[in-house]
Amino acid sequence: MNISTKIFLSLILLFTFGGQTKAEDVNDWILEQLNGSINFRHVNYEEMYTKIMDNSAKIARILSAMTFAEYCNAYALDSNTVNIIDIILEKYTDEELKGNNVSYLLDKKYYLMVMQNRYDEIERMACYIDSRWQRDPVMAKKAACWHQVAKEGKGIRPVSIRREKNVVRLAPDTSNGYMMINAVVNQKKDARFMIDTGMMSSTILSRKLANQINVHMLPDSVFFNNAINPDATYSRQLGIVDSLHIEGITFYNLPVWVYDEVKEYECDGIIGSPDLTRLEYMELSPDSIIFRYPVPEGDKPQILPWEQE
């Protein structure tokens, strides 16, 4: 992982924890645990649960930091975030989970599962909500949506990547102030994408492009107000792209968000950090983007990217 990405992740951590931690605070302990392994394989979950129980008001902040880390690790299958969420849901009583904590935790797990195309797990989550919160109308609505997503997603294969060469060098167009590249989507359409290393989201497509290339849409929509025009309401919906080809690299079965509007960026879509980091190694400069595979031996991270060298 290159130095610009390290700086970016450092800023994420600073904004998440900066100015809020104290000596021996739970967040110091969380950081110590995360620093133990780049893939989060050495976390003491029982102790983590105890710390969280003692600091229940800080669940959202802790989980937010962990989820940022997971997104930067390309929705890793051995997900520390998912393990922690499962422990909290198992050991907290319904009274302790009152308020927004339940939805917050379940939504975090759900989106990690979606980005891994793990629809059987989503179905189990929906059944879990049915059995535990069957009388809660908000939770019942969530479960119904996830049942439908799981049904529509059944049979979709995991995300995979094919590389035609080990080194792919892109020369983005930066004439409008953004990094723009061309890509072929579903083997049908040449499209213009913005590369946004600060976007902690899966790839975004415009609704117009999605309709042209027959994206497999899933029944999960979110409505929101545009930051530039607060009076305008837009929607985003989950979908699956059969293939997304960038020079020398093809993603298959890629989950995307389909947006009503991306006109302000003069492009057909946006590729964010999580999908870029599925490629494991990226060199970024103002005039080039280079992907290498396998990861050069000298550049394999030995510490978490936000640690000082």
The total domain count is 2
Give the H and E element order.
Answer: HHHHHHHHEEEEEHEEEEHEE
CATH topology of the largest domain: Cathepsin D, subunit A, domain 1
Termini separation comes to 13 Å
- The rough form would be described as globular
Biggest sheet character = 6 strands, mixed, barrel
Which helices and strands appear, and what pairs or packs with what?
Layout: H1 3-17, H2 26-34, H3 45-54, H4 59-72, H5 80-91, H6 101-115, H7 119-132, H8 137-153, E1 160-163, E2 167-170, E3 179-185, E4 189-196, E5 203-206, H9 207-213, E6 216-225, E7 233-246, E8 249-259, E9 269-272, H10 273-277, E10 282-285, E11 288-292
Parallel strand pairs: 4-9, 5-8
Antiparallel strand pairs: 1-8, 2-11, 3-4, 3-7, 5-9, 6-7, 7-8, 10-11
Key phrases:
three-stranded antiparallel β-sheet; Cathepsin D, subunit A, domain 1; alpha+beta; 309 residues; single chain; disordered N terminus; six-stranded mixed β-barrel
Summarize the structure in words.
The radius of gyration is 20 Å and the shape is globular. It is an alpha+beta fold. It has ten helices and eleven strands. A six-stranded mixed β-barrel has the order 3-4-9-5-8-7. Strands 2-11-10 form a three-stranded antiparallel sheet, with no helix packed on it. It has two domains: 3-116, no CATH class; 160-299, Acid Proteases (Cathepsin D, subunit A, domain 1, Beta Barrel). The two termini are 13 Å apart. A hairpin with a 3-residue loop joins strand 3 and strand 4 (189-196). Helix 6 (101-115) runs antiparallel to helix 7.
